[in-house]
Amino acid sequence: MSETLLLFSVIATLCYGVGTVGYLIYVIRSDTVIHRIAYSFLLAGFLSHSLGLLALGGLIKQIPVTTLPQTFSLFAWAIVGTYLAFQLKFNIRILGTFVSPLAVVFMMLASAIPSNVIPSSQLFKSLWLTLHVATMFIGNAIFALAFCAGIMYLLQERQIKSKNFGLLYRRLPSLEVLDSLNYFCLTFGFPLITIGLISGFVYAGAVWRSYWHWDPKEILSVITWLIYAVLLHERLAVGWRGRKAAIMAIVGFSAILVTFVGTSVILEGHHSFKSG
C-alpha cells in the first residue's frame, strides 16, 4: 500500500513539474496548445494527487494532516485544485505560471522531509476538525492565488509606468482584471478562514477544555486574519484598489507562510511537528 501511495505522489509531482515547465514555455510562445497541455498535466497531477490523499486517508483512517509532509502535500493539492477551478471562471492562462511553482515547491518539501508515523486517534476524527482543516486549507489556497495576482499586478503596473513594454506586458491581463481577481479571492477566502478559525476554537474547546491556549499558531492565525480583515474593510469602506490591495495580498500570504511553516517546524505548541 505504501508503494502505491508513493507512486501517486511521484506521478502528481512529475505532472506538476511538467505543467510548470509548460506554463513557462507558454510565457514565451503564448500558444493555446501549449497552455492546454500544461493545464492537462496539472489536472492529471491533481487527479493522481487526489487518489493518493484518499488512499492515505483510508489507510490511516483520519485526515492526512498529522505529519508535516502530509500538510505540505495537502496544501499543494488545495492550491492546484483552487487554481483549476478559478481558471474555469477567469480564464487567466498565465496565472498558472505563477501558481504551479508553488505546488511543486510544497510537493518537493513533502517528499524531502522525513515523516514520522502517527498512530490513529479519535482526536483526529472530529467533524469540527474536518471543517477546520477543509476551510483553512482551501481559504489559504485561495489567498495563494491572490498572492500571485498581487505579484502580477505589481509587475504589470511597473511596466506601464516605465513604458517598458516587455514580453510579460503582452501576456499579463489588465490591471483591472488582476484587481478583480484579487477582490474575488478576498471575498471567498476571508469567510472560509473565518469559519476555519471558529471551528478550530470549538474543536480546541472540546478536546482541551479551553478555546484559547496562547499557542503560537493561534496567535499568528489571528494576526493573519486581522490582515485580511483590514484589507476587506479598506476595500469596502475606503475603496482601496490596485497597488495597495496587491501589496496587502502579498503581505497576507507571507503571514500565512510564516504561520503555516514557522509554527510547524520552529515554535513549540499544539500545532508543532518538532516532536513528531
Give a summary of the structure in a few sentences:
The chain has 276 residues and is mainly alpha-helical. It has helices spanning 2-29, 32-60, 68-90, 95-112, 127-162, 167-171, 175-208, 216-238, 243-265.
Radius of gyration, CA atoms, in whole angstroms: 19 Å
Number of domains: 2
Q: Count every helix, treating DSSP H or I runs of 4 or more residues as helices.
A: 9
End-to-end CA span: 22 Å
Query: What order do the SSEs take from the amino end to the carboxyl end, as H and E?
Result: HHHHHHHHH
Fraction of residues in H or I helices = over 70%
Structural class: mainly alpha
Counting DSSP E segments of at least 2 residues, the number of strands comes to 0
- As a percent range, the share of strand residues is under 5%
The rough form would be described as globular
Describe this structure in words.
The chain is an all-alpha fold. It has 2 domains: 1-117, Four Helix Bundle (Hemerythrin (Met), subunit A) (Up-down Bundle); 126-276, no CATH class. The protein has helices at 2-29, 32-60, 68-90, 95-112, 127-162, 167-171, 175-208, 216-238, 243-265. The model has no long low-confidence stretch (mean pLDDT 86).
Topology:
Elements: H1 2-29, H2 32-60, H3 68-90, H4 95-112, H5 127-162, H6 167-171, H7 175-208, H8 216-238, H9 243-265
Helix pairs in contact: 1-2, 1-4, 2-3, 3-4, 3-5, 5-7, 5-9, 7-8, 8-9
